[in-house]
Amino acid sequence: MDYIDHMDVNLWFQTLWDVMQVDEEACLNLIRSVAPSRDLVVNLIEGDLSALEALAYARTLVDLGRLQEAQEIFQLVLQVAFGT
After folding, report:
1. What predicted TM-score, i.e. pTM, was given to this entire model?
2. CA-CA distance, 77 to 52, in Å (whole number)?
3. Of 82, 77, 71, whose CA–CA distance to 41 is shortest?
4. SS3 41
5. Alpha helices in 5-66 (DSSP H)
6. Which residue has the higher pLDDT, 39 or 57?
7. Percent helix, strand, coil in the chain (nearest 5)?
8. Could you read off the pLDDT of 11-34 as tens digits, one per residue?
9. What is the C-alpha to C-alpha distance for residues 51 and 73, in angstroms, rounded to an integer?
10. Residue 40 CB contacts under 8 Å (≥ 6 apart), including other chains
11. How far is residue 58 CA from its own chain's centroid?
């Protein structure tokens, strides 16, 4: 049977989240390994950012203890990457 287990998807996103907190460029490379290759632009209230800039912003928010905001930015990057 050819399918992705729900647990595997959750583990994948958790891995991306963990990598993002250490190295946003490595995180973006992982995202691009499975997402369509294109320039990713994330639209934020603050303005448009590249996916790498948005991940760096999310990482900074984590460092500042603003976890919920960081998760929102991270989710936006994933939505843009996967076209959802």
Report:
1. 0.85
2. 9
3. 77
4. strand
5. 6-20, 24-34, 51-63
6. 57
7. 65, 10, 25
8. 889 999 999 999 999 999 999 988
9. 10
10. 50, 51, 77, 80, 81
11. 9
Cα–Cα distance measured from residue 39 to residue 62, given in angstroms and rounded to the nearest whole number: 24
> Strand pairing of 41-44 and 47-50?
antiparallel
Cβ of 10: how many Cβ atoms within 10 Å? 10
Q: Which of 69, 15, 81 is nearest to 44 (CA)?
A: 69
Task: Retrieve residue 59's tokens.
Answer: 């990482």
Rounded to whole angstroms, how far apart are CA atoms 73 and 61?
9
Compute the distance between CA of residue 12 and CA of residue 18 in angstroms, rounded to an integer: 10
Q: Which amino acid is at 46?
A: E
